[in-house]
User: Which sequence fits this backbone?
């Protein structure tokens, strides 16, 4: 089978199922497993490479008004690849090629490839989507073992968390300028890891959050995992975060529990590495309870100087 994936998370699902050799095309954002970076790219972004977070947010909001996505298909490349199966998503209106464009493209291709849209909102639905891909690719028998392995890792985290006596107040930010609270599966990950998400709600979309709401929540732990940004790109916005009123008075800042995580590789991809995200988060919240699995990067605990203010936190 010739498979084209239109989302980094679906690319990772395809590969987790052992279908990497069947993958013939991916998006411009697909980068894991590393070998997929050499595959043909079937999408292009409309976001300027040097756009600021505020500019990206404005572009997203404008696109939402017109129901147009931020990415578009490279039709000639797609036609040359002649896929049997196209895996995409209908969860986010702007972070992938528009569903209508994918459908129209599929209808114009020889053989009319099968198209499946994934829309997971929580961890269990992410696992279900693995089964959907396996079924569509004709390898349904591979899904149970893959899902069981991932589910087992989640259960082991949950079992350790059951012994935790104090669950800290947590705010997980998915964007800084403007602030966005977490949504979808991320608040669930916070709960499983042993924290209490103060703003984001399980199974609900992330949303623009007034900074005053973060101040009122006064989190004991602040996690910054910006959607689509790695840690290097997120660092460019840390001075914006620390400039918000009351930032330096937050409990998490005063106790030095502000963490930076790779939102692009982990939290914003509803695929197998959400379990990695859980294990990284659990270790950050309760390092004495949750060991960090080998091969996973620890969350970066930010020093005051890294947050935009040299020296100590003001009294």
Assistant:
């Amino acid at each position: 089978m010739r498979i084209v994936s239109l989302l980094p998370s679906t690319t990772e699902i395809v590969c987790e199922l052992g279908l990497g050799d069947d993958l013939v095309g991916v998006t411009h954002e697909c980068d894991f497993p590393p070998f997929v970076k050499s595959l043909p790219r079937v999408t292009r972004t409309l976001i300027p490479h040097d756009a600021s977070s505020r500019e990206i947010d404005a572009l997203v909001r404008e696109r939402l008004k017109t129901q147009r996505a931020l990415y578009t298909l490279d039709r000639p490349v797609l036609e040359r690849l002649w896929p049997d199966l196209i895996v995409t998503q209908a969860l986010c209106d702007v972070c992938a090629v528009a569903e209508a464009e994918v459908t129209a493209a599929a209808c114009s291709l020889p053989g009319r490839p099968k198209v499946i849209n994934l829309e997971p909102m929580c961890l269990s639905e992410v696992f279900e989507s693995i089964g959907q891909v396996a079924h569509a690719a004709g390898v349904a028998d591979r899904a149970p073992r893959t899902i069981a392995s991932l589910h087992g890792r989640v259960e082991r985290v949950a079992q350790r968390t059951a012994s935790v006596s104090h669950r800290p107040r947590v705010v997980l930010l998915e964007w800084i300028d403007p602030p966005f609270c977490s949504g979808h599966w991320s608040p669930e990950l916070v709960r499983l890891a042993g924290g209490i998400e103060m703003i984001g709600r399980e199974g609900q979309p992330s949303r623009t959050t007034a900074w005053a709401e973060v101040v009122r929540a006064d989190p004991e732990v602040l996690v910054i995992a910006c959607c689509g940004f790695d840690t290097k790109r997120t660092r460019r916005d840390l001075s914006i975060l620390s400039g918000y009123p009351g930032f330096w008075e937050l409990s998490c800042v005063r106790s030095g529990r502000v963490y930076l995580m790779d939102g692009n590789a982990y939290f914003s991809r509803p695929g197998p590495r959400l379990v990695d995200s859980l294990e990284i988060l659990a270790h950050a919240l309760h390092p004495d309870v949750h060991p960090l699995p080998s091969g996973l990067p620890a969350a970066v605990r930010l020093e005051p100087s890294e947050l935009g203010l040299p020296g100590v936190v003001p009294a």
Q: What stands out?
A: Residues 310-315 have pLDDT under 50 and may be disordered. The two ends are 62 Å apart (CA to CA). Residues 1 and 137 are 7 Å apart (CA to CA).
